[in-house]
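User: Modeling request: complex.
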Amino acid sequence: MRFLLTEDQRALRDGARELLARRFDRAALRAAVDRPGVLDRALWRELGAAGFFALRLPEADGGVGLGLPEAVLVFEEAGRRLLPGPLVATHLAAGHVPGAAEGETVVAAADGGGLVEWLAQADVVRGDVDGAVPLRSVDPLTPLHAVPARGTADPAAVLLTAAEQLGTATRACELAVQHARAREQFGRPIGAFQAVKHLCAELLVRVETARAAVYAAAVTADPADIAAARLLADDAAVRGARDCLQVHGGMGFTWEADVHLLLKRAWVRTRRAGGGTESEELLAADLLAGADR
Amino acid sequence: MDLSDSPEDAEFRARLREWLGKVLPTLPPKPSPDDWPGRRAYDLGWQRALHDAGYADVHWQAPPGVRLIFLEETEKAGAPYVGAGFVGLLHAGPTIAAEGTPEQRARWLPPILRGEEVWCQGFSEPDAGSDLAALRTRAWRDGDAYVVSGSKIWTSHAEVADWCELLVRTDPDAPKHRGISWLAMPMDAPGVTVRPLRTLAGSAEFAEVFLDEVRVPVGNRVGAENDGWRVTMVTLSFERGTAFVGEVVACRRVLGELAHRARRTGRWDDPVLRRRLGSLNAEFRALWRLTQWNVSAAEAAHGGVPGVGGSVFKLRYSQARQELYDAAAEVLGDAALDADRTWTADRLSSLSYTIAAGTSQIQRDIVAERILGLPKGR
Ligand SMILES: Cc1cc2nc3c(=O)[nH]c(=O)nc-3n(C[C@H](O)[C@H](O)[C@H](O)COP(=O)(O)OP(=O)(O)OC[C@H]3O[C@@H](n4cnc5c(N)ncnc54)[C@H](O)[C@@H]3O)c2cc1C
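Assistant: Request completed. Predicted assembly structure:
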């Protein structure tokens, strides 16, 4: 057992981080907020060229031939940057839908939950979306349609969603700490006050626990591990964004600060691919799976 | 990211399983919780058995991955806990291994490993708990000995201990973190008085220790004179970093038992309770993964001395353990108020986890200041 990133995995993560920092920086994020519902097709193709969607396709089929652990690292980076678009659906469509692997085709999916993201903008929609009704989405970066919930979610979709939540949680922690160091009140940085310090510490504790759960689930691909990863990552992202908002004070409640974007995206993802209740039930059933005691 | 056993790990696991299968049925019955001499004998007997089978040093000399396999397998098989061996095996021993001289290692480590000597921890004082560096127990030099006077409190296992890892103030004029030394004090030395304290669970788990001009040889000092705070940080990093990790496996077993009990009694039909147990399953799975992550990182970066990641683990684990026993009370209903139940005793003891070895508030300060780099100050 050596439960750490390998050198290759670190290089992959750093590469994804650099690409996204370059192609989807804060200015791009805010520009996207100002043009809701518009997907940057050029960026989508670049992601395709970088192997974002074809990451887990065998090399023989033109893919990168990597596994879930690597996919999780890349999706974590996407979550950290709040990269918009049906990333999970398109990734899962690679090898099944022509053009998905290359980022030429944008794929949306009904995945067992009651919402479909980016339905109107997608070139291809997987799953049954009969009766879809548009919502005015709370997240300016994720257009939503309501659909009757049917079927169960793909565990890979659950895990990759958890990875995105982990990235967003990490970002919330970084933003909170940055602000706590810089903002002064009563003549010193607010991060010197224990009440603020402890909010930041709890942010990190949730991130680190979620990280261990998400990475482990990527290695084992065990449905109960994946369900656990989802619960921990949802909690880290949602509560993390909320605590980050608290640390930002009044500034955190403005449209200008990015905090609300973190929180709203985290909320949307908690409803994706089933949802937390389903994961809790799965984990409850798992407790009874052993021999009778 | 690798969670699988290497061929050597797999072989270690298989041999350990086989040995546990043979030895566990031959163990004497567990003594009652209040029978301290009995508990001491039982816990040391188990350590002796481990020693004779070649597993004695698994807690601090084996590669961390091997240690996790050991914890996993012994707990799953229902083997005894370290018990009275806690301090010696999980933090005094590892501290002496890391900081002691060759003579000190030769004197103290083998008896710990052979299950012959019990250690306790004399750090806290009535006026120095969270503010440990405020300790006042004095030690002054008299020839080749320190003469120690003062008192310690909440000293777990003091009644049955042979040795105490003792923090003393050797320079009263230095700034408070600077004038401290780390001594190994024999508990049978003249001038040592142990007065048991009753815990809220009703047992005499810990004690007050009064020190009246106790002579401790200078050669029993680990680390340099007045450099005891640094040594203490090593001890605490073991205590917070790795001493509790095995218990996560035990919590997972308890959770499984709870679920089965809930099903037998019909409580399982309550979706709120069911989902609460489901989310605790997520919590303890994650804590086990965090353990594996921390242990791998410590092995890679610090040569086995755990980093501040231990504070992250302790914060989350101490909370989760309390939530587990609150959920247990929910499953048990009225029986949760029966003091004779082991569940009740375990629920009571879980209350100490957010206090002992540094309170949650202190751990949050550590995480914020040492990992996140936030400024010091209150
Ligand atoms: C079961 C058990 C076993 C123990 N075993 C041992 C042992 O074997 N050896 C040993 O040496 N000690 C032992 N201890 C003592 C333990 O380490 C201390 O109780 C602990 O460090 C807290 O110190 P205190 O009790 O003095 O509480 P205090 O320091 O008085 O704290 C009281 C409250 O104030 C808070 N507080 C204090 N300072 C701050 C601050 N700076 N910021 C925010 N909040 C603060 C604390 O978090 C706590 O909530 C044991 C304790 C328990 C419960």
